[in-house]
């Protein structure tokens, strides 16, 4: 398979990843376009026997981080927040649950979000993720477990502690009153 | 917030290992150990279950094909028809490749243009005053004092309705004699009838090196031009333009006298009047045309 064809064959997955990462369809499409363009222009920089997907993901990530600097406001403003633009697919899992998950996903810091998406959704091995993110495997593991916990806490609250009212509920929401229902 | 070591987890279990267990990234021995541990500690087992659910939910959210945990290293495009929604169906089918020139070529091109620019500047620099109708004074050059005085005198006296001049045009002969005497050389007043301007009169002003004369002209609609004449220490023959707001002053030096024609009219028109005035006063406008 030629280099070009190989790059192209990864595009659907790059697009899926970019959409999940940015939460913005148009932005993601632009990112993938830019990534493919850059990859094809810099094919000489790619070492033949290394992992093409990790290389592409690295390019995409750098572009994303660059562009993110120019779009700081996105993560802040609730009205234009990414999860409003991304439609949760309604399937086996309840749509509402997915919507919550989506919201929580974009509350995560980028470092945790990207590693979660790469490993859980894109099914990269830890080795590949470490390549794509440019960090050691140990860091991938720590970020991943922290990201998982963070996401879980955002969605459920810390299940292992008794609910004391001051628990960390979903972040960036006004504090909620906990009203216990008698059982 | 440090989730690496959770107090609620039994000793010997860190979350990283549980996480790696979920992703099937452990060595067989480690996997055995964690599996045994999960059987004993329901809390750890619950955590693993929660994370597995989370993983499945993330995949559902992102439209990844559902699989039973097996890894595929081959790219697969929407292999399940049910996942078209966010899959291949609405994806742009093309990647546009904009031609990219290597940096050295762009740098080379930039250098070439720079050289061309510098060459042009060198070649055309001396011609600039001519090309721009005298508007370009060269780098950092200032208009001579008499031109600035002429410009100011225009601004001061032309708004005057009742006393625009000291001696009116009705006494033209007296006016010319008087000013010739004060400037100590014979003056003449060119006619601008051709352009619709008639002489209003003139006045004596303090100039750069002594007395200066200002002649004022007016057309039917009341627009005014002034011709300013003054002795000057400078000796150059160039014909130039001074811009000040909407006022334009063309000035030149001829035979030891500085002349300046000022008015708020179009540059081209003022220029052609100035050329006429210059030749009427014995100058050589051909020299700078």
Key attributes of the depicted protein:
heterodimer; A: 183 residues; mainly alpha; Butyryl-CoA Dehydrogenase, subunit A, domain 3; globular; disordered C terminus; B: 289 residues; alpha+beta; Phosphorylase Kinase, domain 1; 7-stranded antiparallel β-sheet; 37% helix; rod-shaped
Structural topology:
The complex is a heterodimer of chains A (183) and B (289).
Chain A (H helix, E strand, L loop, with lengths): L2 H20 L2 H17 L10 H19 L11 H4 L9 H11 L4 H12 L4 H8 L3 H20 L27
Helix pairs in contact in A: 1-2, 1-3, 2-3, 3-7, 6-8, 7-8
Chain B lengths: L14 H8 L5 H13 L1 H21 L40 H22 L3 H4 L13 H13 L9 E2 L3 H12 L14 E9 L4 E8 L5 E8 L8 E5 L2 E8 L2 E7 L3 H14 L9
Antiparallel strand pairs in B: 1-2, 2-3, 3-4, 4-7, 5-6, 6-7
Descriptive report:
The complex is a heterodimer of chains A (183) and B (289). With 183 residues, chain A is mainly α. Chain A has one domain (3-156): Butyryl-CoA Dehydrogenase, subunit A, domain 3, CATH 1.20.140.160. Chain A has helices at 3-22, 25-41, 52-70, 82-85, 95-105, 110-121, 126-133, 137-156. In chain A, α2 (25-41) packs across α3. The radius of gyration of chain A is 18 Å and the shape is globular. With 289 residues, chain B is α+β, with helices and mostly antiparallel strands. Helices cover 37% and strands 16% of the residues of chain B. Chain B has eight helices and seven strands, in the order ααααααβαββββββα. Chain B has helices spanning 15-22, 28-40, 42-62, 103-124, 128-131, 145-157, 172-183, 267-280, and strands at 167-168, 198-206, 211-218, 224-231, 240-244, 247-254, 257-263. Chain B has a seven-stranded antiparallel β-sheet, with helices on both faces. In chain B, β2 and β3 form a beta hairpin. In chain B, α1 packs across α3 and α2 (28-40) packs across α3. The radius of gyration of chain B is 44 Å and the shape is rod-shaped. Chain B starts with 14 loop residues before the first helix and ends in a 9-residue tail after the last helix. Classes of the chains: A mainly alpha (183), B alpha+beta (289).
């Amino acid at each position: 398979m030629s280099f070009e064809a190989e790059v192209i064959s990864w595009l659907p997955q790059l697009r899926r990843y970019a959409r999940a990462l940015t939460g913005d369809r148009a932005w993601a499409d632009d990112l993938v376009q830019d990534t493919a363009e850059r990859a094809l222009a810099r094919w000489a920089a790619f070492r033949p026997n290394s992992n093409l997907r990790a290389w592409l993901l690295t390019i995409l990530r750098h572009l994303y981080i660059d562009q993110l600097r120019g779009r700081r406001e996105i993560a802040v403003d609730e009205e234009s927040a990414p999860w409003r633009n991304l439609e949760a697919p309604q399937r086996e899992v309840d749509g509402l649950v997915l919507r919550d998950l989506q919201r929580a996903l974009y509350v995560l810091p980028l470092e945790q979000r990207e590693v979660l998406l790469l490993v859980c959704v894109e099914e990269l091995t830890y080795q590949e993720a470490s390549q794509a993110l440019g960090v050691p495997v140990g860091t991938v593991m720590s970020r991943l477990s922290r990201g998982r916990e963070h996401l879980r806490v955002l969605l459920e609250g810390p299940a292992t502690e008794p609910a004391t009212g001051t628990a960390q509920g979903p972040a960036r929401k006004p504090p909620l009153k906990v009203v216990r229902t008698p059982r | 917030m440090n989730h690496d070591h959770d107090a609620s987890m039994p000793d010997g279990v860190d979350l990283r290992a549980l996480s790696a267990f979920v992703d099937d990234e452990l060595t067989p021995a480690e996997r055995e150990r964690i599996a045994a541990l999960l059987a004993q500690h329901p809390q750890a087992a619950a955590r693993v279950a929660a994370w597995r659910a989370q993983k499945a939910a993330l995949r559902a959210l992102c439209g990844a094909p559902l699989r039973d945990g097996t890894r595929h290293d081959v790219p697969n495009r929407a292999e399940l028809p049910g996942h078209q929604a966010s899959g291949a169906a609405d994806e742009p089918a093309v990647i546009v490749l904009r031609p990219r020139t290597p940096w050295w070529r762009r740098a080379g091109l930039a250098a070439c243009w720079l050289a061309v620019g510098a060459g042009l500047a060198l070649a055309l620099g001396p011609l600039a005053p001519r090309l721009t109708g005298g508007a370009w004074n060269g780098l950092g050059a200032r208009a001579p004092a008499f031109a600035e005085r002429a410009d100011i005198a225009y601004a001061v006296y032309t708004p005057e309705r009742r006393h625009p001049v000291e001696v009116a045009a009705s006494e033209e002969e007296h006016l010319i004699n008087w000013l010739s005497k004060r400037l100590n050389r014979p003056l003449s007043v060119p006619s601008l009838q051709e352009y619709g301007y008639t002489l209003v009169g003139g006045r004596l002003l303090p100039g750069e090196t002594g007395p200066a004369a200002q002649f004022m002209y007016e057309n039917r609609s009341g627009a005014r031009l002034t011709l300013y004449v003054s002795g000057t220490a400078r000796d150059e023959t160039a014909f130039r333009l001074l811009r000040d707001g909407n006022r334009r002053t063309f000035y030149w030096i001829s035979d030891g006298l500085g002349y300046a024609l000022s008015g708020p009219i179009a540059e081209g028109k003022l220029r052609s009047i100035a050329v006429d005035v210059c030749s009427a006063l014995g100058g050589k406008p051909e020299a700078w045309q």
